[in-house]
From TrEMBL:
Belongs to the pirin family. Pfam families: Pirin, Pirin_C. InterPro entries: Pirin, Pirin_C_dom, Pirin_N_dom, RmlC-like_jellyroll, RmlC_Cupin_sf. Its cofactor is Fe cation. Residues 20-124 form the Pirin N-terminal domain. Residues 180-281 form the Pirin C-terminal domain. Binds 1 Fe cation per subunit. CDD domains: cupin_pirin_C, cupin_pirin_N. This is Pirin domain protein.
Length: 285
């Protein structure tokens, strides 16, 4: 069994008008390579016609911003003329690469009808050789994501990225990554296998789980594992939702400033200049 290196309770931070729970980075843990950032937004209850989740146009370079939408509706638009609507269960996997400008807002349908919105935004680093690739956009619908049940249907697992249980997730990645969405009913149990070379972490969105038949952990907690075993077991003490993320670490220098993730400070300055010069495209709403 893998043991826990760090137990991270997410902290609330303000992003514009939206409050999010930040589990990564922290003062103690700057990254769990290749994962750089994990924000949990919601659950927010929105009344019909009420203003909701709205992240204005902003640039990115050198990494992949990924959104797992658990409930609600989001509208994505970017400077590469990509536009898409995410609904409950959908995943948006965007490659910023050499540079892109995008916005994420509650979808018109969701704003009209109201409801609950909740999701995870994840930043995944790109290796140096791929940081300047052409930007890309994967609009992954819930119907495309393989899922199965275990433990007499008390466990439901969805495979977003990577190879697992003889299946392959729909997300195309630049480095080996495993992304599993796990839903446990009361007393549901599962063992999560992790490749030996992968870094791994598990974020508990809601509920309470017992890890490795030992300690229990509650919602809004990130468990960062040591690389000392073939996986870990989870057992729910109450209905729980967990996002498991694992990947081959990128052992390269890291330079980061705001929305840019590169290898040197010179490259960060170049990203800032290129954005100002319009080399990341132009966002038209």
């Amino acid at each position: 069994m893998r043991t826990v290196a760090n137990i991270i309770k997410s902290e609330r931070i303000q992003l514009g008008r939206t409050t999010v729970k930040q589990a990564l980075p922290t003062v103690r843990v700057e990254q769990v390579s290749p994962f750089l950032l994990l924000h949990h937004f919601g659950p927010f209850q929105v009344e019909p016609g009420e203003e909701a989740f709205d992240v204005a146009p902003h640039p990115h370079r050198g990494f992949e911003p990924v959104t797992f939408l658990y409930s609600g509706g989001l509208r994505h638009k970017d400077s590469r003329n990509n536009e898409g609507i995410l609904k409950s269960g959908d995943v948006q996997w965007m490659t910023a690469g050499r540079g892109i400008i995008h916005s994420e807002r509650a979808s018109p349908e969701f704003l009209e009808n109201g409801g609950t919105i909740e999701g995870i935004q994840l930043w995944i680093n790109l290796p140096q050789a791929k940081k300047m690739v052409e930007p890309g956009y994967q609009d992954i619908k819930v119907e495309q994501i393989p899922q199965w049940t275990e433990d007499e249907s008390r466990v439901k697992i969805r495979l977003v990225a990577g190879d697992y249980n003889g299946l392959k997730g729909p997300a195309q990645t630049f480095t080996p990554i495993l992304a599993l969405q796990i839903e446990l009913n009361r007393e549901g149990k599962t063992f999560v296998e992790i490749p030996e070379s992968f870094n791994a972490m598990a974020y508990i969105l809601r509920g309470e789980v017992t890890l490795n038949e030992n300690f229990s952990y509650k919602s809004e907690t990130l468990l960062h594992f040591r690389n000392d075993g073939g996986g870990f077991s989870l057992k729910s003490n109450e209905p729980s939702h967990i996002l498991v993320l694992a990947g081959e670490p990128i052992n390269e220098p890291l330079a980061q400033w705001g929305p840019y993730v590169m290898n040197t400070q010179t490259e960060i300055l170049e990203a800032m200049r290129d954005y100002q010069m319009g080399k990341m495209g132009f966002y038209i709403d």
